[in-house]
Amino acid sequence: MAAVDDRRTKLNPDESPLAIICGGGSLPFAVADAARRAGWTVILFAIEGWADTAAVARYQHHWVGLGQFGRFRRLARAAGCREVVCIGTVLRPSVSTLRPDWATVRLLPRLYRLFRGGDDHLLSGLGRIFEEHGFHLLGAHEIAPDILVPAGALGRREPSERDREDIARGFALIAAMGPFDVGQAAVIADRRVLAVEAAEGTDAMLERIGELRRLGRIRSPAGVGVLVKAPKPEQDRRLDLPSIGPTTIERTVAAGLGGVAVRAGEVIIVQPVAVAAAADQAGIFVVGVAGDPVAGA
Hints:
This protein has 11 helices and 13 strands. By secondary structure, the protein is α/β, with parallel strands linked by helices. Strands 6-13-11-9-7-8 form a 6-stranded mixed β-sheet, with helices on both faces. A 5-stranded parallel β-sheet has the order 3-2-1-4-5, with helices on both faces. Helix 9 packs parallel to helix 10. It is globular and about 60 Å long. The two termini are 20 Å apart.
């Protein structure tokens, strides 16, 4: 796991408010609450069309559209924000769908170049833009370390030896794909690669597995196979860490797989108690794998 920037540990949260750029889902609010408990004043910069309107209203906030970097910069500077966290669901837009303000218009040639590549290429480039304008980008896990999956099984069930072979192969595959900036997940069954996550995302990939079963293209019995998730080896851990939640468990069960394995300490978990309960009810495992997960792959 990439070393955490130690500047955060030297900061007093009372020095300046924390800006949280807030996409969809519940995770931004868990991070905001954790930041508050740590003594931060939190200001949400909620992305129009993505952030939960009712939940956002419980916090000091501003609404910003995709492509409104100038508005964010102006409001964040006026509030005295220097530290920024980006968290929550936002599907990758095309440049043509942005509604750029003047500051973003000036960045368009650079943005076009960033969009010509994978998600990590795009997000890392956006992170550099924030820092060039005086903001310090933090990972959500630096503010709320308890959002990361711990090592070990989250529920009652442990992976079998056959599962562990599939897990090792899945982590080896994600590591090998890293230079191509492809995805953060794969499905392996009996050492066979059934699917690799690309632009469709994890949920759609798992739906594809279910469809392949219905078409008879996957003949392994139900309960065999593992969803494996991990960040890409050179990924900027401050942005777009992979995540799992109750929906992941539902999709894994519907796909007929035996469990979920993720890199411990490097994957975000949404509603961990609900995840463990759903896994136990379905009879599948959810495990955080520490150390070198590709050994023996």
